[in-house]
Design a protein that fits this description.
This protein is mostly helical and about 450 residues long. Helix content is about 75%, strand content about 0%. The model has no long low-confidence stretch (mean pLDDT about 85).
Length: about 450
Amino acid sequence: RKLGQDCNYDKALPLVIEVLKKNPKDLDALKCKVVCLLKLDKCKEAYHLITTDKELSKIPMWHERAYCLYRRNKLEDAIAELNNAEPSPKVDELLAQIYYKLENYEEAASIYKALVKNTMDSYTNERETNLAASLASSSAFKSKPIKWIGVRESTYELCYNSACYSVSTGDIDAAQQKLEKAGELCKKEFEDDEAETKSELAPINVMKGLCLQKSGNTKEALEFYNTVLKEKAGDGQTLAVAANNIICINKDQNMFDSKKKLKIATTDAVKAKLAASQANNIDFNSCLLSFYTNQLDHFKKKSAQLQAAGSPLAPLLLATSLVRDKKFEDALKTLQDGKSQDEVVRLSIAELMKKTGSFTDSAEVLKQVLSMSNKPGSVSMIASLLLLGSGPSAAADYLDIALEELRNTRNHSNEDITSWVLQCAKFRLAYDMPEKAAKNLENLLARD
C-alpha cells in the first residue's frame, strides 16, 4: 500500500501477488492488485481479474470495469457498466471521457459543465480544460457546434483549447495571441523540466504552424511542423497532425518527403486516437498521394473505400482525377452532387467555377466559407470575382458590406478600417462612381 501511495506500482504488484499466494481471499490485496494493474496499463488483465474472481464479485466495481473497457476502446460496453454504478463525480468524469472519445462532444461538455459548477476540489482546472476541449472539438469537427462559453484562460491548457476554438471559427489573429500566451504559461510551469516543456509545447507549436498555414505562410508553418517532428516530443496524435499538415503543404511536390510523413500519420496506434475527421483527412491525403505518384490501382481502391465509408472528401478524389484530364465541368458537377459542406470541398467548387467562367457563382461560394470571412486577401479575391462576373457596382457594394462586417467583428484596428475605406473609395473612383466614393470618405470623416 505504501508503494502504491508513492506510485511505485511496478514494485507493489509482485508484493501483492505474494500476499495473495498465502491468502487468495484477501479482499484488500485483491483490490490493490486491480489498482496496480490499471496503473500499469494492464487493463485486459485487470478486467479478467475483476470479472472472474469470486471475492471481487461480492463488491461493486462498476467504475473499474468500465475503465478497463474504456481503455480497450469498448466504449458502449463501458457506458453500460457505468449505468449500474452509484452516481458520483468519479463516474461522471469517466462517462464524459467516454462520450468525448465517441465524439459526442455535446454530451461530454454537458457533463463537464455540471462538474465544474457543482464540484469544488483540486481538479477544477482539469475539468475546465476538458470542457474547453469538448467545445473546441465540437467547433472543429461538427457541422452544428456547441456555443462557446466563457472559459478562463489562466493555464496553458485552457489557453490552448481556447485558441483551437478560435482557429475553428476562422479568427486566426485571436488564436495566435492565445497560443503565444499558452506557450509562455507552459514554459513557466515546466521551467525546471526541459523534456516536459518540449512535450507540452508540441501541440501548441503545431497549432501555431496551422495558423501560419491558414494565413498562407507555409514556409514558416513548415518550420514549426518539422521542429516538432524532429524533436519527437509530442504524443502520436500531435506528430500525426504535424506530418499530415506537411503533406497538405507539399501537395504534388516533395513526394519522397510526403511518403515518409505519411508513415508517421498512419500507424494503427496513432489512428485509434484521432478524431474521425482527422483520420478521414489522413486517409484522403494517402489516397491523393498515390494519385500524384501514379499508383492508380491503389488510388482507385482507396477512393472506393472512402466512398463506401461516406467520407465527405471522397468526391474530391474523383474531381481531382477529372481536373487532371481537364474535364473541369465534370469535376464541378461531381463536387456539387456530393453536397458536402466541408470547407476544402467548397473552396474547390469555387476554384472550378472560376475556371469555367462562373465568376459570380464562385464569389458567392467563397462568401460562405467561414475561414475566409473578413480577411483582406479573401475580400479582395471575392471583389475581383464579382467585378469579372457582375461588374463594378456589384463589387463595390460587396466591399461596403465587407467593411461593415469588419467593423462589427472588432478584430481590426481603426487604422485597418481607415485603409479599407480608402481602398473602397479608390475602387469607386477608378470605375467612375465619384458620388459613392465621396460618401465613403464622408463616413470616414464622420467616424473620426
